[in-house]
Amino acid sequence: MQQGITTLVVVGVGLIGGSFALSLKRAGKVQHVIGVGRTLENLNRALELGVVDEISQDLAAVADRADMVLLACPVGQMGRMMQAMAPCLQPHAIVTDAGSTKGDVAQLFAQYLPVQLANCVPAHPIAGSDLSGAAAAQYGLYEKRKVVLTPLPQTSITACDTVAELWQACGAVIHRMSPAEHDSVFATVSHLPHLLAFAYVGMVAGKDDASRCFDFAATGFRDFTRIAGSHPEMWKDITLANRTALLDELERYRLALAALTAQVEAADDAGLAATFETARAARVGWYQRFLREGQT
């Protein structure tokens, strides 16, 4: 196991980046954390809470001190951040990210950090939430959570293993995929559900009797729509970044919805029962596996 790193620079000190920093501090795997972001109020809050030890609104001013940079900002900002740090990075510095799409991030690494590719490790911690900001950071966020690494062809084994070991120090379980496989899988199980939740809540909000509908919304509505409270800018970036895979998933969902509509129109008792039972069994089976893995 690596002894850790001296200086970690976290770009985007929110739930994901802040929790990574806190967990590494608790594990004794980092000595100094520099938080970088656009909003001074959030950075000051991170400093007050002990999530970071130092703050800056200028990545280029601190990148030369980094042993590792974690890009935990929205994917749409990553290219600009890579461009800013590129002239400043030390040869040994590892650059990783926490984005929810990986194909586009791999391309950004190749475009903006071509000299550093051996130390670039795209990653995706599966621990999202509708909470954001430094105050959302928590020590145990990654306990028994999956983190997917999608190393580039040029990524060194040493850099990849170092990133894996640091996530493991946070309690995470490491998986490896290609960027393309990652984006296909997460279009299905993460990105599409967010789009559906946003669309559904938007539909309800646009009804003439929206206020009345919301008055009577209860736990079913709450559970189905929780992720519609997620960060709009982040999910706009994710949607556009994974556009091709998402269009495939949206078409599959459109066909499933058309089939369900036909069953409802035909009052197809047996068909509806079979559709619901198939879905129920799949969901129950998944949730049992989810609980066995110790996730919450």
Written overview of the protein:
- With 296 residues, the chain is an alpha/beta fold.
- It is 53% helix and 13% strand.
- The protein is built from twelve helices and nine strands.
- Strands 3-2-1-4-5-6 form a six-stranded parallel sheet.
- β1, α1 and β2 (30-36) form a beta-alpha-beta unit.
- α4 (75-85) runs parallel beside α5 and α7 (179-205) crosses α11 (243-265).
- The longest helix has 27 residues, at 179-205.
Top keywords for this entry?
elongated, 296 residues, three-stranded mixed β-sheet, 9 strands, alpha/beta, six-stranded parallel β-sheet
The separation of the N and C termini measures: 27 Å
Tally the helices.
12
* Overall shape: elongated
Please state how the strands of the largest beta sheet are arranged side by side: 3-2-1-4-5-6
Class computed from helices, strands and strand pairing: alpha/beta
Tell me the helix content: 40-55%
What percentage of amino acids are in beta strands?
Answer: 5-15%
